[in-house]
Amino acid sequence: MYQQAHKTDLARFGLAERSRKVLYEDLSLLEPEAVVAEEVVSFRFFGGTIIWLDIISSITAGTAPRLLPYHFSVIAPNSQTQLEDLMGCKNWMMLQIGRIAALHEHKIQALQQRSFDCSNFEQTVSEISREVQCGLTQGALEGFSISECDSATMFNTKSDSPMLLTRIFAYMASLYLHVVTYGFQKLDVLDTTISGAVRMLRTRIPVHLLPALVLPLYIIGSVAKQEDEHFFRTIFSSPPLLDPALKHRERVLPILEEIWSRRKTTPGFEWKDSLDLTHDIMLI
C-alpha cells in the first residue's frame, strides 16, 4: 500500500488534487481548505508512522527495513514529514539507524555467501559513524556533541524533548553500530559512550519520556556494565514502561538478563545471536 502511494502519484487514494500536489512535491501545509489540510496531515502521519515502525521492526528481525528505498525521500532532514512529531527522534538520526539495520543484514548475507567485502563494510561503518557525529556537532542538537558532559545544561522538558530523545537515540546508534560490527566484543572501547548514555538516562531524561525510549533502553541495556544492570532491571520492571496495554514489554527484561549472562559465558557472542532471543519483538 505504501509503495503504491509513491508509484501511482497518490491517485488511487481518493485524495483531492491539491492534496496530491502538496504531498507529491513535499510542500509546506498552508492550506485554508479543511479537506486538504486533513488529508495532508493524515497521510503524512500515516507515512511517517509506517517508516518509523519499518525501522524499529527491522532491528529485532535482523533485516534491512523493507521500505529503505523510500526513507531518504520521505524522512529527509528537511522533509515536511518529521518523525520527531510522531515518536520524538529527529529524521536524520532515524535514517542512520535504518542504515545500520540494513548493514547488519548485508553483513550476515555476505558472510553466508562467502562474499564479505571487509573494506567496503568498514567504509560504510565509517560513513554512518561520521554522519552520527556530524549531525550532533553541526547543530542538529544545537551544538551538543556526544562526548559533552550531560550535566552541563538545563533543559526545558517540553521544548527540548526532541533534543533529549534524539541524543539518546544517537548514543544508541553508536552502540548498535558497534555490536553489528564487532558483536559484544571490545566493549571496553565504548566505556565513554556507555557511561554517557547511562548517565543521561539517570539524570536528564524525565520519567514520562521513558516509554518513547524502549528501543534505546534495550540496546544501551544490552551492553551495560554489570554495575548498571540493576538500573535497567528497575526501568523494565515498573511503570511507566510496564503498561497493561503493552504486554510485549514484559518480555524485554528476561531477554536482557539472558544477553548479560551470555556475554559472560559465551565467547564470540554476536548481535545476530541476541536476535534469536527477541523473536521479532517490537521495541515500542
Bulk shape:
globular
H/E series: HHHHHHHHHHHH
Average of pLDDT:
88
Number of extended strands: 0
Individual helix count: 12
Your description of this structure?
With 284 residues, the protein is mostly helical. It is 59% helix and 0% strand. The protein has helices at residues 2-7, 17-24, 34-61, 68-74, 91-112, 118-140, 161-182, 191-203, 214-222, 229-236, 252-265, 271-278. Helix 2 packs across helix 3, helix 3 (34-61) packs parallel to helix 5 (91-112) and helix 6 runs antiparallel to helix 7 (161-182). It is globular, with a radius of gyration of 20 Å. The two termini are 23 Å apart.
What's the short version?
The protein is mainly α and 284 residues long. It contains twelve helices and no strands.
Question: How do the helices and strands line up, and which of them pair or pack?
Answer:
Elements: H1 2-7, H2 17-24, H3 34-61, H4 68-74, H5 91-112, H6 118-140, H7 161-182, H8 191-203, H9 214-222, H10 229-236, H11 252-265, H12 271-278
Helix pairs in contact: 2-3, 3-5, 5-6, 5-7, 6-7, 7-8, 7-9
